[in-house]
Amino acid sequence: MDLNINGKAVPVAVDPAMPLxxxxxxxxxxxxxxxxxxxxxxxxxxxxxxxxxxxxxxxxTSAAVGRKVQTIEGLGDPGKPHPLQVAWLIExxxxxxxxxxxxxxxxxxxxxxxxxxxxxxxxxxITNICRCGxxxxxxxxxxxxxxxxx
Length: 150
Prior knowledge:
Elements: E1 2-5, E2 8-11, H1 20-27, E3 46-49, E4 52-55, E5 68-70, H2 83-90, H3 100-113, H4 119-125, H5 135-149
Parallel strand pairs: 1-5
Antiparallel strand pairs: 1-2, 3-4, 3-5
């Protein structure tokens, strides 16, 4: 099977039913995407497929064939971080950091769809669980990044 991950063709020889999360982490060594619950409830494993946030722990790898997969590793780079990554640091969002890659991927999808999200838009789009409770900082960072995009 060939996957398109972060703009690169990546061949993988796995069971097509294997969850995409495990292909990313265990087969490809891309550990930025986290395992949280395994039932699509927490959002730690969120990646984007064709721009849409998905919980990769329940997506079979076969569902990603022929589509564009973006992981946290492809959101920005050290020389040019994504505006969300910059805002995340300015607003001091991360505490333990475990949920952050999934939150960032969901937030990137949101500001691409709605460049000036309201609080209600953010609440609807960001259903990821943060055990540290940084939700207010997440909201501030999303609004900061959306302002930077304008």
